[in-house]
Write a structure and sequence with these properties.
alpha+beta, two-stranded antiparallel sheet, 7 helices, 8 strands, 26% strand, endonuclease activity, CRISPR_Csm3_endoribonuclease, RNA binding
């Protein structure tokens, strides 16, 4: 039975260029064939909830021994051991649970869209629809021939509004702290592609953690604001 929702809101700040790949079905002459994903309505880059959630799950699986073992036992697919933290946080798909929906996801990650300040930043003439072109080159080790290419990325300094909802049901462990740990791990990892080459460093800022019990929905009670901070570590400590 449902008990409460934790709402985590704030901003994702790009500390370096961010590349989350999109479709290159319509390539302009002189454009990039390695484009970022864009909102089909506005044409602006955004961060899909699936990309953020997938990375948080991946880091949780690496950070928990039982979850990592479950990934190995599952031939590299997401952890499906019902007792490991990753399954408890992010759920097990119907396929993986053999039609037994034992662990529906506790974590919902919304798509993140640019804030107003970022939309103004993207009015820069050097940017194309909110993205810059990063040029790279590979050199043939034998004949020294060059193979230049470019890749689109969202420029550093861009900010996106994010929202993550963590649901708690009766008999659940209080494991939202593991989700916050994954967010902290992500700040020292990367989001999107080419992270080992400088892309995808992000930081969570203006974080607000609040709790909405079942009475919030039934009786229109106020939500409880637990903490507001620019530091994910302070948010983690507020729950101890």
């Amino acid at each position: 039975m449902f008990r409460e929702n934790y709402i985590i809101q704030g901003k994702i700040v790009c500390k370096t260029g961010l590349h989350i790949g999109g479709s290159s079905d319509a390539i302009d002459i002189g454009g990039s064939d390695n484009v970022v994903i864009r909102d089909s309505v506005t044409g602006n880059p955004f961060i899909p909830g699936s990309s953020l959630k997938g990375k948080l799950r991946f880091l949780t699986e690496l950070n928990d021994k039982d979850s990592a073992q479950s990934v190995i036992d599952n031939d590299g697919k997401p952890a499906d051991d019902p007792n490991c933290i990753a399954s408890k946080l992010f759920g097990v798909s119907a396929d993986e649970s053999q039609n037994e929906l034992k662990f529906p996801t506790r974590t919902i990650v919304r798509d993140s869209y640019p804030d107003e300040e970022t939309l103004e930043l993207w009015n820069n003439e050097s940017l194309i629809s909110g993205a810059e072109l990063k040029y790279e080159n590979t050199i043939n080790r034998i004949n020294s021939s060059a193979n230049p290419r470019n890749i689109e990325r969202i420029p550093k300094g861009s900010k996106f509004d994010f929202e993550i909802i963590f649901s708690v049901y009766e008999d659940d462990d209080e494991n939202i702290s593991y989700l916050l740990d994954a967010m902290r791990l992500l700040e020292d990892n990367y989001l999107g592609g080419s992270g080992s080459r400088g892309f995808g460093q992000i930081k969570f800022e203006n974080i607000k953690l609040s709790k909405r019990t079942s009475d919030y929905y039934k009786e229109n009670n106020d939500e409880e604001v637990i903490v507001e901070s620019d530091d994910i570590t302070e948010v983690i400590n507020a729950l101890k």
